[in-house]
Amino acid sequence: MLKIAWNHRYAHPLPAGHRFPMLKYELLPEQLLYEGTITPDNLFSPEPLDEETILLTHDPDYWHRLSHLQLTPSEIRKTGFPLSAGLVQREIIIMNGTVQAALFALEFGIGMNIAGGTHHAFTNRGEGFCLLNDIAIAANYLLKHTAISCILVIDLDVHQGNGTAQIFADEPRVFTFSMHSGHNYPFHKEKSDLDVPLPDGLEDAGYLKILQSHLPQLFDQVQPDFVFYQSGVDILETDKLGRLKVSMAGCKERDRLVLETCRRHKLPVTASMGGGYSEKIADIVEAHANTFRLAQYLYF
What we know:
Largest sheet: 8 strands, parallel
Distance between the termini: 7 Å
CATH superfamily: Histone deacetylase domain
Order of helices and strands: EHEHHHHEHEHEEHEHEH
């Protein structure tokens, strides 16, 4: 069964001006349920993640200051959100959503999180709407508590997964692959194990050709036994913060290529949703919904 992490705290209310990015966390599960792609049985509600697991990835001083709302004004500005106890609570629930989705992936082949993909969070700081790094936390959890010994991170958000790259820079058991807009945020890029910067204005054919040229080599080279997929939909032409021109159909084909490759190699995969900032919320929800539709179709 496809298991999907979702908690009502994912749509934690923010002050005016910050609410739009949260709307998709309410609308996406509603859409999937309405159209019959999933039933309530597919959804599970994660609890807050324990501190011990958070500290497998994040610096103790940073976590202490974050959890006690003691970040500096500069640190808070870089996250893009006003800091509050409710926001921190939301973040640690999302973190556990990806951890639990990874455990479900070991059982069912795939597990998903309605939220997550917080790849701009470093060991000791947050930025870009990310306070903690769910993919890194879940990867470190698997390495410590399961037989998983080699992990491939496929990050196809339009922005480089800079935090994930930094966290795993000296961890040979995790291979980070980021295919992103080369001239977009973050303007200082970290070094992933493989970075593929893309030119502005790239359309479907060029985007998919580049992805297809790298996926087989990645799986052959890395020989992973687990995959994390950051499936941000800010690659869309309609996205306010992207610089690419990928269509809705092209974004769906991207997801199909990744998920089919994982399934063909019989590798468990966990998908986190990542970014999406199109002017119309319907475009964001539809693009994300395609990822879940494909997972249900391909695996179940």
